[in-house]
Amino acid sequence: MTVTARGESLQDLTGKLFQRMRKQIFQEITQPIIHMEAKEVYFDQVDVEETTEHFMLFFWPRQKRTYEVTARIVVDVKYLNINERENR
Predict the structure, then answer these.
(1) pLDDT digit of tens for each residue in the chain (88 aa)?
(2) What pairs with residue 78 in β-bridges?
(3) Which residues contact 37 (CB under 8 A, 6 or more apart)?
């Protein structure tokens, strides 16, 4: 599964990647999910954007980083395979 996320820090970004992964799995698998486990994570593309911000245009410059990552996550998913039958 391939997901992309953007964040201010690597911790924030990693959390967003896994949130999007879970959301995508719940959309694809309509059965009740019992267990999800990420087996492997590959960062295919990592972009770092650095900008310099100034307070009131001149004072206290600081570096601001924004990360954007595209990752492939190999996930083991266990779910209940429930089939409805007609009640007679």
Answers:
(1) 999 999 998 899 999 999 999 999 999 998 999 999 999 999 999 999 998 887 776 777 888 899 999 999 999 999 998 877 655 5
(2) 35
(3) 75, 76
Strand order in the sheet with 59-79: 2-7, 59-79, 33-55
Per the confidence metrics, is the pTM higher than 0.85? no
In degrees, rounded to 5, the angle at the alpha carbon of residue 28 between the alpha carbons of residues 27 and 31 is 90
Q: Cβ(75)–Cβ(29) under 8 Å?
A: no
Q: Closest Cα to residue 3, out of 76, 75, 72, 77?
A: 72
Kindly give, in sequence order, each residue whose CB lies less than 8 Å from that of residue 31, ignoring residues fewer than 6 positions away: 79, 80, 81, 82
Tokens (6 digits) for 16: 């967003």
Task: Spell out where the chain has E strands.
Answer: 2-7, 33-55, 59-79
